[in-house]
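Run log, item B.
One chain of 349 residues. Sequence copied directly from the ordering sheet:
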Amino acid sequence: MSFPKAWVDQMLLNWGDRLFHDPLRHVRAPRMSRGELGRDERHMREQLARTLRRTPEVMVKITNKASGAQGMGAVRRHLRYISRNGRVELEDQDGMTVLGREALKDLTDAWHLGGWGIPEESGRREVFNVLLSMPPGTNRQAVRDAARAFAAAEFGDGRRYVFAAHDDEAHPHVHLSVQVRGPDGRRLNPRKPDLQRWRERFASQLREHGIEANATPRRTRGETRRYPKQAVVHMTARGEAPHYWRPELDEPARIALWDAHAVTLEAWQGVVHAMAGSPSADDRGLAAMVADFVQTMPVHQDRSGTGRASRKDGLRHRSATRDRELHFVERGEPQRELFPEYPDIRVER
């Protein structure tokens, strides 16, 4: 039995949005023509294929997000750092390069005194320092070019910024410093959805420059690794033990982690249910790939103490589709279990 293609496409968009986007972004979706829907469906399939291939993930991080007040003194120190005190070339929003100590001083003076100006000491953040990074082995020039295009697309409204590409570490990365206040006086105030949008835009620019790149949320990949903040890294390097950072989760935290991934697993099930019944052989192939992808998610490896045994003991859990019967029609071909936690869901191989 196969489902109508229109139904498969609609369900793919529905479950795909839950996997790859914040649902709040789609509360008031505009009405779209059939052609626009077709493009969305194609893009969703491409996104699924990239994720299942484990395409390298971009990293976009605000490195000074946790800091408090920041005036020109802090900005000047950071610009000296990313330019290696003038030895590494900076590039600004107009494509002009800054190299050497004198040129760096001219730049900081212009930021300090020009436009809206940045006071020497400020009770508010005046510049956001953004790190754009890719895994080792990525073409460094492509990363730089993609960062340039990303900055122009995201901040090219007259806002001042500079960026520097560093080649002294294995991970190709670019430091971008962008002024908070724009030409109209409005201030940047990025939130978590903005960071995800930045990741998606940077990944798109990398693909435009010939680099395979993806920008999926950690929960979509079943990722459970916890990364310490830079302050913790520096404390550990000094031999100090931070009081609030623990590399291992305790039992309640592990259970909460599994609960948080339950919604994602439900969405993956919805994708499989739709695509395994598609009339397209390519769609059915993607459904089979999901089986392998989900079974090797890190969240399954970190389930010690949070699986069936603990749930039988009455610990809280979420299992929205545990009792839902989703069976695919047997055609005499070998079947395999898709999700160990949901043995009733199988996909034809």
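Observations after the first pass:
- Residues 23-37, 304-349 have pLDDT under 50 and may be disordered.
- Residues 5-55+249-348 form one domain.
Flagged for discussion on Thursday.
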